[in-house]
Structures are given as C-alpha cells and as structure tokens.
C-alpha cells in the first residue's frame, strides 16, 4: 500500500471499489486518475540504512530474549523469532504513529490524548525554543508537485522558512563515548528536501526532530550542500520509481 495525492494536493488514500466498499488506493487506481505517489511511497524503492539497522536490532532483541523450546528445530525457532520481531516492530510503529498524531493535534491546538499531552507540550516547548518562535507553525500540510509526487509535511513555518519532520525513538542510544548515536541518515534529508520543494519552500531550513517516548528532543539541521545533494538524489529516485512502476 502507498499514499497518493491528487493534482490539487489532496490525499487520495482510499477509494470506493466496484463492490461499493471503501478500500486502499492502488497503483492501478493512481494511474487511472492521474494521482501522484507520496514522497515516502517513492522512497520505498531505495535502501534505508537507518531503518535496516532498526529492523535488525528488533530481530536481535527477539533472539536474545526468547527461550528455545526443548527439541525445537532451528527452522521453527527462527520462525518464532521473526514473528516476535515483527510484533515488536508493529508495536513501535503504532506508538510512533500515535505520537505523530498527538503532535499534530498540539500544533493545531486541538484536544490531545491525556496519555501524550505532557510529551507533546514538552516537544512543542523545545521546538519553539530551538527556532525562537511560537507563532506560524502549520502541521500536516499536504501538497502536490508538477514533477509528479505529493506528500504531507509534519511541520512547516513560512514566517521563519523552516520545514521539519518528526522521527520517534523509544530512547536515544549512546555510543562508547557517551554521545547520542547517529540517527540522521540520507533518507531523512531526501524526504525533507522533497517536502520543501513540494511546499514551494526550496530554500528553507530543513530539520529533523527526533523525539523519544519521554518527550526528549534532538534536532538535526541539514546543511545547504547536503540539501542540494538530497534533492538531486530524490529527482533520480523519482525517475527510477516511475520506470520501475511503469507509471
């Protein structure tokens, strides 16, 4: 399943099927109605080192914590480890989605689930302190671009020319020197560079905001050369995606 956007920038995530029931939009639907793939849908075609490491860690966690049943064959034990790691990944993704939704609500000044209210207020305060303003923030702005892609940016502020994207972490890991381990990868900058172009904010400051489950934040701001490189990479990725999907 991918996310799709109309030429007007409106999300087209679902469609009424021939049976009269709502279903997820498919590539075939998108071709028929000339809908655009989201930035993240396009980027699914590329390798993502950060995500790969995270998924590998989930498998290793399952392998380290699960007990092998007496006489259990290797194949069966491996299958249980894989199943458990997928459940861990799903739980983490679901929690990340709930935090994202709550952050959207707090920046839109809507009611926030009590469970996430303190976290969201803490994150919003950190964002306002980092950028030096409480005003002008717009959450979840959708768009489409004439090159044939769309998307929805977590946060932008045209007054101070910033596009930001939240990334959730259960906790921030430390390296051998006690510093926070690397969290920002090329794919994060590529995503933001595409969002900035889609929002007609091509010269904006691009910032990833990493948020842990306690509401602590780490800001990673990308340099101009990195942003130019990332946008050039996205242009090629988009071309490859279109060729691969016969779009």
Word description of this protein:
This protein is α+β, with helices and mostly antiparallel strands and 247 residues long. It has a single domain, classed as Lambda Exonuclease, Chain A. 47% of the residues lie in helices and 19% in strands. The protein has seven helices and nine strands, in the order E-E-E-H-E-H-H-H-H-E-E-E-H-E-E-H. It has helices spanning 27-33, 39-43, 49-65, 74-107, 114-131, 186-198, 224-245, and strands spanning 4-5, 14-16, 22-24, 36-37, 138-145, 149-157, 162-169, 205-212, 217-221. The strands form three sheets. The protein has a five-stranded mixed β-sheet with strand order 5-6-7-8-9, sandwiched between helices. The chain has a two-stranded antiparallel ribbon with strand order 1-4. Helix 3 (49-65) crosses helix 4, helix 4 (74-107) packs across helix 5 (114-131) and helix 6 crosses helix 7 (224-245). It is globular. The relative contact order is 0.14.
- Please tell me the CATH architecture by its name: Alpha-Beta Complex
**Alpha-carbon distance between the two ends:** 15 Å
* Fraction in helix: 40-55%
What's the tally of helices? 7
Q: Overall pLDDT, averaged? A: 91
Q: Give me the Rg, rounded.
A: 20 Å
Give the CATH class: Alpha Beta
Beta-strand content = 15-25%
Order of strands, widest sheet: 5-6-7-8-9
Structural class: alpha+beta
Produce a short descriptive summary.
The protein is of the alpha+beta class and 247 residues long. Helix content is 47%, strand content 19%.
């Amino acid at each position: 399943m991918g996310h799709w956007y109309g030429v007007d920038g409106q999300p087209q995530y679902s469609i009424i099927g021939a049976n009269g029931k709502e279903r997820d939009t498919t590539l075939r639907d998108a071709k028929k109605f000339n809908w655009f793939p989201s930035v993240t849908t396009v980027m699914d075609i590329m390798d993502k080192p950060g995500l790969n490491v995270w998924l590998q860690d989930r498998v290793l966690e399952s392998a380290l914590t699960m007990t092998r049943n007496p006489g259990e064959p290797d194949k069966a034990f491996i299958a249980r480890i894989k199943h458990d790691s997928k459940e861990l990944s799903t739980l983490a993704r679901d929690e990340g989605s709930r935090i994202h939704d709550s952050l959207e609500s707090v920046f839109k000044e809507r009611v926030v689930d009590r469970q996430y209210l303190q976290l969201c207020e803490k994150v919003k305060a950190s964002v306002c302190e980092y950028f030096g303003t409480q005003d002008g923030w717009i959450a979840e702005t959708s768009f489409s671009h004439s090159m044939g892609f769309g998307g929805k940016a977590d946060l932008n502020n045209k007054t101070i020319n910033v596009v930001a994207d939240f990334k959730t972490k259960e906790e921030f890991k430390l390296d051998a020197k006690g510093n926070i381990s690397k969290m920002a990868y090329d794919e994060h900058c590529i995503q933001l560079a595409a969002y900035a172009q889609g929002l007609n904010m091509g010269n904006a400051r691009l910032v990833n905001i990493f948020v842990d489950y306690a509401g602590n934040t780490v800001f990673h701001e990308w340099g101009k050369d990195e942003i130019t490189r990332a946008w050039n990479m996205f242009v090629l990725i988009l071309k490859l995606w279109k060729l691969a999907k016969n779009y």
